[in-house]
Structures are given as structure tokens and as C-alpha cells.
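Hi, here's the filled form for the chain we discussed.

Project: internal
Contact: R.S.
Residues: 548
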Amino acid sequence: MPLPPAPAKRAALLNTEGLDTAPAKSRSTRKSAPRHEEHVAEERMPPQSREASAAVTQKHEAIPAYKGERKAAPARTAAPKKAKHTGPTKLFVLDTNVLMHDPMCLFRFEEHDVFLPMIVLEELDGHKKGMTEVARNARQTSRSLDALVASHNADIITGIKLDGTGHIEVGGRLFFQTEPLDFTLPSSLPQGKADNQILGVVEALRIKHAPREVVLVSKDINMRVKARALGLAAEDYQNDKTLEDGDLLYSGAMALPEDFWIKHAKSVESWQSGSNTYYRLSGPLVPDLHINQFVYYEAAGEPSLYARVTEIRGKTVVLKTLKDFTHLKNAVWGVSTRNREQNFAMNLLTDPEIDFVTLTGTAGTGKTLMALAAGLTQVLDDRRYTEIIMTRATVSVGEDIGFLPGTEEEKMGPWMGALDDNLEVLAKTETNAGEWGRAATNDLIRSRIKIKSLNFMRGRTFLNKYLIIDEAQNLTPKQMKTLITRAGPGTKIVCMGNLAQIDTPYLTEGSSGLTYAVDRFKGWPHGGHITLARGERSRLADFASEVL
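And the returned structure, exactly as it came back:
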């Protein structure tokens, strides 16, 4: 079935004659709903208020949002809420690595109690010196413990209320080991090792507080295995994970069903603005869409539709058709896109209204090449940004090669091989310039690209810069926040990474800073994400990505 033509008059109804459509249902008259105040953030509300807020949200689900606003993300409201714990509370014994991984972990256990063995405090004290992320987290944990103790006037033996420092969502207590505990461990376990002492404390507490459940929480896999071998309950720290399953990550694009035009043809409005066509429609698909999400319609024998969601108001959505970067006349710095997802990504990279772009995909999908091509065009041709700043996490795949001499940029040189490779490709696009012209172009390009280290980012502000964060999957959520908050007026940030190539210890696909950023910026009017699906590097690289 052909796509309905765009009428010349703005906001006119499409001519649907000749379309094989089902009888349209009568549409009820739309009534304006009063604007409601925003609810308090769910994370800061006590359990009782959260339940009341959920009931209010369900009651007013049909209230339309106002222009530029997006109603609560369906992925969060539609997901079934975690049932409130009604049984006896648990006692969680924390390992040292949990405290050093997340300084706020003490306030993540809801109504359950937390126990800290004395050896954990000793290990925490031993890791507080230095400028590493672990040392900073250890010091922050010590400050939190000091604030909790200072806010508690009663005896420390009775337990310290965890809501004493303003964390009203927590209902449990914090217990310190204030007396020696008798425990018996197998003689094969060295008694002086800190891990084994913590296991002994868990065993003693299990006997002392029976039948109450005592659970060890540790990021150390071997520690959890040993605990289970001894018959003790052990769990991983789950609160740092944005998603439980990496397959649930927002992809940024959605295929429209084959019967899309049949179901929506009667309610479609269309108008032209410049080279873009806009479609306003309503239907059952709207609750599943997000601002700046891409939608596409592909069917044999029918014209394709590629569009981006630009506005959502209640049950109505506005789609904007895309610029076709697969055509050579729209090539960016001599680079044209080769597949659907690359075209989506280039629309985000070249849109001045999009301040934050995240790109994920396997090796060879063109993430760095497209980001550099779009950056060079907007820096050298459009003068939209003053320069390109490129940085990445310096995490080695294998053994570290040791000390690197030189300036900051020279030290970052070995980590920026991807930059050199892609600049070589982009320089070859100037075929008519000759040898001297290409050399001059290379010098001009390199004068506008600055390579910076992550270690010196704190406190900086980037004005009118095009910031590329490569290998972003190796960043923690805290590091990602540190980088994104460096953006000043007129700055655009592009985060790229492959979640299947995480080299940072303790990071997984669910807890990576890249996953964190994609999930949190989902639906923001000035941010966009796309997952690149097909590799374009070579047939060898594509086959290796699939079978290895």
C-alpha cells in the first residue's frame, strides 16, 4: 500500500480515499484536562507514599502532557513494582569491597539491617590513602559512618538508625561488631585471612540470630563461592546495576508493524516544513515511544518511512522524516552511511538541537568514523563548535606497557590509535587536492582536535566544544557523570562504546557507565541514542564478531 502523500496545507487531513481500511471507530471528543503538579521523585519517598503515588499515576494515566514534556517513561511505569517485603527483615553483612564500590550502599537495603564486622573497618582504614577511585570511596564511606554515629544519641550496641542523616527511605539499623564472636571454620581455611574472618562472623551471626536470615553481600565471586560451600547465604551487590539483562537496553529505534498505516491512516495529519515532512498521529503505539526515538516502516513493494519522534502530547505523537545520508549528495566530510542505523546516528550527530548522543554497537559499525566526520564538518565547515576534544578510559586489554614519556597528548597517543586510523580514512576523501593539499588538510584537522586525559577533567568547563568519549563502556556511572557535567553552553557530547568489550574490573553490561547514561537520558528532548547493528569494517571483522 503506498504512503499517503503530504498535503500542501499545514495540518490538513490526508486524503484516505482508495485505502483498504477497516471501519473507523468513532472518536470521542477530547477534553482538556487540568494541569497537575509534578509528583515528588519516587526515590525520595517513603514506601507508603510510593504506593499512594502509584495509585494516583494509574488514575490520571490518560492526562496529556504539555508541549516539550514527556509523561512518565512507560518502561518504568509499566514495569511491575517490587512487592513490599512483608516477612521478617534480614541481616546483611557487608564485605569491604561493597563499601569501596558504592559509598552509599549502607542506604540501599530498605527495611533490612546492616552489620559491619570489625575487620571490615580495618580494611577500610587501610585503603583510604591515595587518589584512586577506591580510596575516595573508602574516605566517603568513613564520613558516612561518622555522620551516622554522630546523629545517634543512644547506645551504639542497640543499633544506629540508618535514616538519621536524612535518608528517609531506609528503615533498618546499622550494627557494628562490638564484641568477639565465637565461630568454627574448617581447618583448611587460614584463620588470619580477612575474608575467612568475615565468613566466621557470618557463621556466628547465623547461629546467634536463628531463625533470622543472615546474608553475606560481596562483590568477590570467590568469597561468595566459599560462603555457599560452608552453607552460608551469599549474594552479589545488585543496586549498582542499571539493568539486570543487557538485552533490555533501550535500542533507540523501533520497527513499525506491517498494519501500521491501516490502523492509523484515518487519524494521520501531515504538513511540510522545509525538506522535512511531519506526521501527527494517535494510536496504541504512542505509549511505547520516547522523544527522539527512531521509527521505520519497511515492507516489500511499498515506500519506506524513516522518522524520528519529536513531540509526544498525551496520546498524540509527532514524527519528523529524516535526512538521507546514504545518498552521496548528503555525504558528511566525504562519508556516506551504509545502513539504516548509521543513517539514524548521523541524523543525531548533525542535529544542533541534540546535545548528548550515545552510540553502542559491535566492532566495525562505524561509531568513531561517523562521530569524527560529523565533528569535522561542524567545526571546520559550519563553525558551530570551536574544536573537537577526544578522550577515552585508559584501560589496557592486556598487561600495561608502563611509563609513557611526553606531554599529556603524547602520553594519550598510544590510546588513540582509533583516531589516527579514522583520520587516515577521512583524509583520503580529498582526492583532488594533491599531496600538498592533503598534507595541509591533515595539519588543519589535527590543529582542531585535542586529546585529553580523563584524569584532569574535574573542575573543567567546555564551551562550544564537540566532545567525543571513546570506549565509554569502561567508565563507571560516577566517572560518566563527572564527564557529562563538564559541558558548558554550546557543547555537544558523543559517547561511544561496545558493551561486549568491558575491560574494567567489577563492571558488567548492567553496571557500566554507558548503560547508565543510555537509560537515564532516554526520552530527554535534547538527547538521543542508537544501537548500531551491522558492521561495515570488513567481511572478516563481521564474521569474527558473530562467531568468536
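Let me know if anything looks off before we file it.
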